[in-house]
Amino acid sequence: MARNEQLIRQHKILQVLERRRFGSTIEDLRDTIVEELGLSSLHVRSVRRDIEALQAAGFDIQQEDSQQGKVWKLGRTDRGLHKLTITASELIALSMGRDLLVPLAGTQFWQGIEAFWNKVREQLPSGVWDHYQRYRRTLRVIGVPAKTYEKQQGILKTINRSIQEHRRLCIEYQSIGNSAPTTRTLEPYGLAIFQSSIYVIAIETGRDEGKSNEERLRHWKLDRFSKAEALDDWFPPDEEIDLQEHLGQSLGIFSGVKTEEYHIRVTPSAARWIQEDPWHPKQSLTLLEDGHYLLTVFAYQDPEVIQKVLSLGTEAEILSPARCRKAIRQIIEKLATDYSKRR
User: Fold this and answer.
1) I need a surface site. Which of 38, 203, 225, 341 has the fewest CB within 10 A?
2) What is the CA radius of gyration of the chain?
3) Burial (CB count <10 Å: 0-12, 13-18, 19+), residue 3
4) Nearest-angstrom CA–CA distance, 74 and 17
């Protein structure tokens, strides 16, 4: 049996019952679990044992008679919102957060967001909802990328299953600049959302084997996956890996062996922009004698910083590392050549 297999099944039972207000027969529940977890088979006895384990743990799962026959349902106490109190301001904040997550449409994450939103809507007094609707018309969320992950829904389910069960993952991956996708085998540890894109945090089997697992972690953009298969090959997860710490070190989503320190001289106006929209939680701005500011940030790779510096135009000048100054100078020279040509 795969590690945590029973726990994963039990969590899936709760998910299914949460979205089926009128309950589910034991057979239908079994079939849904098999489909959504990608199992080859599952006996109803196993499902019954899982339900009994959940009941023993305190979950209010009840069996009732219906037109379908006997069905299993979650009680109101386990739906979590039977005594919900929420203000119009809190509802507005929740709805704006929901708008920001629109790129996740088509994924199980979005299904969870919508299920929660619908539960909130059902429990609200009409007065609170009416006030929310009037006020919400004055607020808009813009700038969200026009993309969704609906086409990758099946791939994402496979990836999630591999993460939960610590199964190696065989993928077809189309890197930028490569003419054809390549086949890789990954040991996935988690997912990250960066600027409305989903990344898989994983170690590639057979790559950088002399390094520590922390150093071997790479970030794989879901948009570039054309295929994913969970293998019947389990890997022991490294308990020392802390994804929150790993992802919090760098300026963006690039990965590497270790971060490097970058120094950028910025104008006072650029410093204010960077304070309003920070590049990194641990950035520092130091006032210089000439009135400019020294911005210090950390990143895994140069392109993360170079793109940021170029976006500020003449308001920013990178001081170190020297190779970044050289790279930006070459970019500027190429731009000057291109823009001096008549079209």
Assistant:
1) 341
2) 25
3) middle
4) 6
- Tell me the whole-structure pTM to 2 decimals: 0.61
Q: CB neighbours (10 Å) of residue 170?
A: 18
Cα distances (Å, whole numbers) of residue 7 to 57, 148, 163, 181, 239: 12, 30, 13, 35, 19
What tokens were used for 289?
């004698």
Helix 302-311 × helix 322-340 angle, to 10°: 50
| Cβ(25)–Cβ(257) below 8 Å | no
Whole-angstrom distance, CA of residue 97 vs CA of residue 90? 11
**Cα distance between the two ends of the chain:** 66
Cα 116 to Cα 9: distance, rounded to the nearest angstrom = 21
Q: CA 119, 121, 127: angle at the middle one, nearest 5?
A: 145
Rounded to whole angstroms, the Cα distance separating 343 from 341 reads 6
- Going from the C-alpha of 68 to that of each of 28, 76, 299, 336, the distances in angstroms are 10, 21, 58, 73
What does the pLDDT profile of the chain (343 residues) look like in tens digits?
444 677 778 878 887 887 777 888 989 999 988 888 878 888 999 999 988 888 887 778 888 887 778 888 887 554 444 456 666 667 788 888 888 888 787 777 787 888 888 878 777 777 667 767 777 777 777 777 777 888 888 898 899 889 888 999 999 998 877 778 899 999 999 888 887 788 999 999 988 888 888 888 889 999 899 999 999 998 988 888 888 888 777 777 776 667 889 999 999 999 999 998 888 888 999 999 999 999 999 888 888 899 999 999 999 999 999 999 999 999 999 999 998 887 6
Q: Which helix (H) or strand (E) holds 338?
A: helix 322-340
Nearest to 261 by CA among 315, 314, 302: 302
